[in-house]
Design a protein that fits this description.
mainly alpha; 0% strand
Length: 92
């Protein structure tokens, strides 16, 4: 997973923020916060995790699916870019 190695710091920072969000949910439940507050925190955490997943998928597509020697006008390169866009629109 060499492509992740290059993005390691960025990905680890994202995971630390997600971990902090999950800990916030735990604290909210432990201190009997309103259900709406817990749900709001949980959906924020889900959004952050979806963004993380989208980033890893995008890196995978660019590193393992897309042939870097292809010109951007090649249909396969365009299809890979469309796939990245679809993943982002679905997960973020």
């Amino acid at each position: 997973m060499a492509h992740i190695e290059r993005e390691k710091t960025k990905l680890l920072n994202r995971l630390k923020r997600i971990k902090g969000q999950i800990e916030g949910i735990e604290r909210a439940i432990g201190s009997d916060k309103e259900c709406a507050r817990v749900l709001q925190q949980a959906t924020g955490c889900r959004g952050a995790l979806d963004g993380f997943i989208a980033e890893v998928i995008e890196d995978h597509i660019r590193e393992h699916v897309l042939d870097p020697s292809l010109p951007k006008t090649d249909p396969r390169a365009q299809a890979a870019e469309e796939l990245v866009d679809i993943v982002h629109s679905y997960l973020t």
